[in-house]
Amino acid sequence: MRDFTLKSYQSLLVAFQQAGYRFQTFEELMTNPAEGKSVVMRHDVDELAWNALKIAQLESKLGVRATFFFRIVKQSNVPEVIEQIVKLGHEIGYHYEDLALAEGDETKAIKTFEENLSYFRKYYPVKSVCMHGSSTSKFDNRLLWKDHLLSDFGLVGEPYLSVDFDKVFYLTDTGYAWDGGKYATRDIVESGFGLKFHSTSQIVECIKTGGFPEKALILAHTLWTDSWIQWYGLHIREFFRNNLKLLAKSNPIVDRFYKKIVDFYWKK
Q1: Is 18 exposed, middle or buried (0-12, 13-18, 19+ CB in 10 A)?
Q2: What does the alpha-carbon distance between residue 78 and residue 83 come to, in Å, rounded to a whole number?
Q3: Of 37, 39, 153, 172, which is most buried, counting CB atoms within 10 Å of its CB?
Q4: In this structure, are strands 215-219 and 169-172 parallel, antiparallel, or unpaired?
């Protein structure tokens, strides 16, 4: 069976439900964490906003509330999609990248952060934010909080700053793979769980046999699709992107080439 389809994603959600897990939004994890088995489904809408809507519709159909972090760029920031996801009952957060966009200028970055947060609050009372990795930038967006507090902006949490990953198992599909950690630049956490998966079916089997942790935060991007054309196109794109990204870490020439491609993609 093809992985990273809506069908395989549904199998994951159903497995959690049948195993007695409670679904929470990220805000709920921060303010009222559930007792017993619970999982947060987090979606970073880096691009393909309409795919995010399809994921949200599937989750709503199954009675699942999730958290969607939207970027300010046009590939993510699609008002119609945001409005519909909010109507479905999901949480909306801001996927910030202000420090990278401001080239490290903290004063400018905190100003645009506040402006962009206010923008997304037109759609939803945003209480959660999450950094965008900005893999081609030398600036880590989380450093925005070196001299500022989340609470100053009425925020209750940021996944990479507010969660104890020794207590909450973190799983991400970064690189279009559950075991694509070598391709990650900043989407990395330290954890003592020692679990690794390659396919969604392996995760489902672990849940069914009782080996999955009691608490989890799972990041699923918007590359999940039932469209054959989009699915194959994304797999080919991610194959080349991942290998370029990996090579760029050790080759300055490839690094500059990769940055130009990325900049062109997001500015087109």
Answers
A1: exposed
A2: 9
A3: 39
A4: parallel
Instruction: Please list the helix, strand and coil fractions of the chain in percent, rounded to the nearest 5, in that order.
Output: 45, 15, 40
Q: Which domains does the chain possess?
A: 6-227 (3.20.20.370)
Please report, for residues 49, 76, 93, 175, 250, the alpha-carbon distance to residue 222 in angstroms, rounded to integers and kept in the order given: 7, 10, 15, 12, 28
Q: Which helix (H) or strand (E) holds 112?
A: helix 106-120
- 189/166 Cα distance (integer angstroms): 10
DSSP line for 78-112: -HHHHHHHHHTT-EEEEEE-HHHHTTT-HHHHHHH
Any idea what DSSP says for residue 211?
Answer: -
pLDDT tens-place string over residues 114-168: 999 999 999 999 999 999 988 888 899 999 999 999 999 999 999 999 999 999 9
Q: What is the identity of the amino acid at 224? A: W
